[in-house]
Amino acid sequence: MRSLPLRVGTRGSPLALWQTRCFLDMVLRFCPVLRNAGAFEEHVIQTSGDRIQDRRLADVGGKGLFAKEIHEALLDGRIDFAVHSLKDLETEMPPGVVLACTLRREDSRDVLIPGPGILGALDPADPVGSIPAGVRLATASLRRQAQILHARPDLQVSMIRGNVQTRLRKLAEGEADATMLALAGLRRMDLSPEGMVVLDPEAMVPAAGQGIIGVTVRAGDTELHELLGGIEDREARAVSRAERSLLAALDGSCRTPIGGHARLLPDGRLHLTGLVARPDGSFLLKRSLHGAVADAEAIGQELGESLRADSPSDIFG
């Protein structure tokens, strides 16, 4: 009942475009009437997070910089909906914008990737412990940095920015001896770097929302909201609600390393692990909680409040 094309906003990275096209393919399978030519129109929007490549996001405004300009386009009507990596979305949406849909989660774990100089050195049974002493490990994530330094304070951690392909190129060129990336992005890009080792999510707690594609729309757009509700993945919705509720309860600054990982147990209950730390790894607190899927948000809130209550006050400054 609305005019076509429907305009979808996305970042321009190879991974962002893959995610957007995957989402559109799902919509077309769910709603075949939209299969006519020109039903959708991609709008690539460069975000502040894409433009700023020489500093950590924590130093220039946080992960919300990957969505700011996209949501401005949504609110002023230049696009109809927007596709994101859920881990890049703010915990609290801008007024007038809602998270309407979450798609099936890809593998949420992190991977450790050795550079040419330490290929073959990593023991899959103890990947972090087997990193050679003094190795230069590059990451843009304070969450990863805090956890790796907590376990291995002898390592040298430096900042690296750019898309997946750029980071792998920098590693190959010797800018670092090792790096860490999300397995979901590598799988979606059909990349399998030599020597990479997948990390246990209880040992290296992933970012909240990692591996999940989220779609936002205007709050008043009930037609699109209803359409997207038909393709939402129920498990992704449950785990993302728990993880994002954990983030909201912690209410940390963009400089607070926070991890959150929920999964469904064989008996159908939801298990949530949360983590807070100092960037230098000198403090790290990790706890888990489980309960009914229907209580996903309450589980996240309870675990977040527990972590916050038992952490030093400066963690959340």
- What's the total helix number? 9
Strand content: 15-25%
Note the gap between the termini.
49 Å
Task: Give the helix proportion (percent range).
Answer: 25-40%
Question: What are the SSEs and their pairings?
Answer:
Elements lengths: L5 E5 L3 H17 L9 E5 L3 H4 L16 H8 L5 E5 L11 E6 L7 E5 L21 E3 L3 H10 L4 E3 L5 H9 L5 E5 H6 L8 E2 L14 E6 L3 H8 L4 H17 L7 E7 L5 E8 L6 E8 L4 H14 L8
Parallel strand pairs: 1-2, 1-3, 6-7, 6-8
Antiparallel strand pairs: 3-10, 4-10, 5-8, 5-9, 11-12, 12-13
Task: Give the key terms.
9 helices, globular, 29% helix, five-stranded mixed beta sheet, single chain, alpha/beta, 317 residues
Walkthrough of the structure:
The protein is α/β, with parallel strands linked by helices and 317 residues long. 29% of the residues lie in helices and 21% in strands. The protein has 9 helices and 13 strands. The protein has helices at residues 14-30, 48-51, 68-75, 142-151, 164-172, 183-188, 222-229, 234-250, 296-309; strands at 6-10, 40-44, 81-85, 97-102, 110-114, 136-138, 156-158, 178-182, 197-198, 213-218, 258-264, 270-277, 284-291. The protein has a 5-stranded mixed beta sheet, with helices on both faces. A 5-stranded mixed beta sheet has the order 7-6-8-5-9, sandwiched between helices. A 3-stranded antiparallel beta sheet has the order 11-12-13. The longest helix has 17 residues, at 14-30. The protein is globular, with a radius of gyration of 20 Å.
